[in-house]
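Quick check before the chapter quiz. The format below is the same one you will see on the exam, so make sure you can read both the input and the output lines.
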Amino acid sequence: MKKVIYLVVLAAFIAGCNSQPHFVVKGKIAGSDSLTFLLQKRGLTKYETIDSVVSRNGNFKMEGKVEYPDMVTLTAMNTGNRIAFFLENSKIEITGKLDSLANAKVTGSKTQDEYNSFLSSIKGLSDKSVALFKDYQIAGQTNDTAKQSSLAKERDAIELEITKMAKDYIKNNPASYFTPLLLASMSSEMEPDEIEAGINSLDTNVAKVQVIKDLKERTQAVRKVAVGQKAPDFTMNDVNGNPVSLSSKTGSKLLLIDFWAAWCHPCRLENPNVVKVYNEFHKKGFDVLGVSLDRSKEDWIKAIADDKLTWTHISDLQYWDNAAAKLYAVGSIPTNFLLDENGTIIARNLRGDDLYNKVKEILEKLK
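Here is the expected output.
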């Protein structure tokens, strides 16, 4: 009898353990028989594998536990196909096709539903922005600069509207685990006080996630390159391999540090605006130092030539590990900093007409 009681208690204990919060990810991916799938989370420098499984007739299952809902990636090894989704302690199903894995349907994750809802709310605007960019490229092929300028202004207005919707979501959804990622993605467009206000508005548990811990550190770095601060010096090689320091470029009445990359579509969209300001005001004391987050020197040099960027360009070709970008807490590109002749930051993230008007205003005062 004691043995029977012991077995009953043991069974109850095991059942209790199994009832603890955990995730179960079931996949049904057509065309993926015998493929290895990796469940990965992005670390500081590379992806970290949480689990792996081999599919059978396109089906697989993974189980485990996470501390809180977080964005992960399901990758089909050796295919280049993947999908990002929010993993949390629930029963999650992913159904779709291997050749279009990024569009697979994800169900069972509350945070994923919140994420999808936000994407749906901005889809109309996002589609318009993409269409305008395509039209902008077509106008560039015929050198129709007037149409490009009009399209850029229209796209900027749409981007501002999307930004407002994102900020409203952050304000109105302090308990969503999607909110920290959205706040982090928006942080490059926000001042330190606004970022900290967003962090402080989060529910206690949500504020404990790693992305918020990282954002707090980044916000401290942002304060060091805020308007009114002395721009930190740095040195990188130009396209010919010669070292160029920021301090060697200061001394102009105005200097724009422009973080960009050949692969960055918004950067390429903004380049004509910077070219316009440079061509009109360079002889009056305005200069630009381009800092590229490229990995390919060939692509970098080609973009400089294609976009007619005739100022000094430097890079360490380390992509997002670019040393200057880290020093200046650059979280997205294009990002720029406007310096006075003393190397003090007087404005940041000026684009389009805002950059033109600011440079014109300051140079006129310095006459």
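If your answer matched, good. The chain has three domains: 18-108, 112-224, 235-365.
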